[in-house]
Amino acid sequence: MKVGTALKWFLFVWMFGVIWAAFYWAQPAEGFIGESSRIVFFHVPTAWVCVLAFLVSCIYSIKYLMRRDPADDIRAAVASRLGLLFAVLATVTGAIFARIMWNSYWNWDPRQTSITILLLIYAAYFALRSAVPDPERRAALAAVYAILAFVTVPFLVFVVPRIYWSLHPDTIINTSGTNEFDARYTMTLMASLAGFTGLFAWIYSIECRIDRIRHRRHEEVL
Amino acid sequence: MSGLTGLALVTMIIWVALFVYVFSVDRKIGSLDNE
User: Fold this and answer.
1) Which chain B residues are Cβ-neighbours of A8 within 8 angstroms?
2) What is the maximum span of chain B, computed from C-alpha positions, in angstroms?
3) Residue A36 and residue A97 in contact, taking contact as beta carbons nearer than 8 Å
4) A117 φ/ψ angles, rounded to the nearest 5 degrees
5) Are A23 and B7 in contact (CB under 8 A)?
6) Which of A63, A162, B10, B29 could form a disulfide with A72 if both were Cys (CB 3.0 to 4.6 A apart)?
């Protein structure tokens, strides 16, 4: 068996372990209603992968502007697409959590507002891409936009929600710099973060290959 | 079956379905890459 295939099966087993731990091994965290704290094992990793994907998009956008290699444009676009997908997943899981905790799916909490703005910013990235027919011009404009878009990410994800009063629970490392979750809860969350990162890396590589093949076939037709 | 067991089961089914789908796409892309 090749290393790549073995890693994929390892990820399969790993995520099964994460799901089992999330529902049966980890104890519900204090201060949450019922079993609602278990959704954190899926909500936080999707939010993390979203930020990671936008960072990857920014890096490849910078690379594109430096080298003008179409492959970098493909990598940046794919990362933004996955980032947007995971941002939607983080929003949905967050809304379910909000329904349990605050009896309403949507409260215009600072975190909900900031992720909405982030979704709109990255949706506009794809509107921009689809509006420019010339591939080189599209890639250059999209690269500049993706870099500017990423500048807002730390503010919207890390700064704004901490400035304003929020219903959202403290993050894993809270404002006083400590982790108040118990060991099992923290371990399950870290395992889930690792699993989701692996899943992102796998899907990202597939999407890049698909777009590369599409790009190659498009050039062959021309 | 408790609510928690049901949720765990649904999550596992989603994961298996997602894995099977992504794995099959990966194989298909692998064969297209080799063409």
Assistant:
1) 23, 26
2) 50
3) yes
4) -65, -40
5) yes
6) A63
Report the residue from B3, B12, B22 with minimal CB separation from A203.
B22
Q: Three-state DSSP class for B3?
A: helix
ipTM of the prediction: 0.90
Residue A57 near residue A79 (C-beta atoms within 8 A): yes
Q: How many residues does chain A have?
A: 222
> Cβ distance A209 to B33 under 8 Å?
yes
Contact A213 B4 (CB under 8 A): no
The DSSP secondary structure of A136-177, one letter per residue, reads HHHHHHHHHHHHHHHHHHHIIIIIHHHHS--SSPP-SS-TTS
Cβ of B25 and A202 within 8 Å?
no
Cα separation of A39 and A49, whole Å? 16
- Given B22, B26, B32, which is nearest A213 (Cβ)? B32
Select from A96, A79, A84 the least CA-distant residue to A42: A96
- Angle (CA) A194-A119-A117 rounded to 5° is 120
pTM listed for this prediction: 0.89
Residue whose C-alpha is closest to residue A169's, from A41, A79, A37, A10: A37
Question: Which residues, including other chains, have CB under 8 Å from residue A181's CB and lie 6 or more apart?
Answer: A29, A172, A189
Judged by a CB distance cut-off of 8 A, whether residue A8 touches chain B is: yes
Tokens at residue A2, please?
């090749």
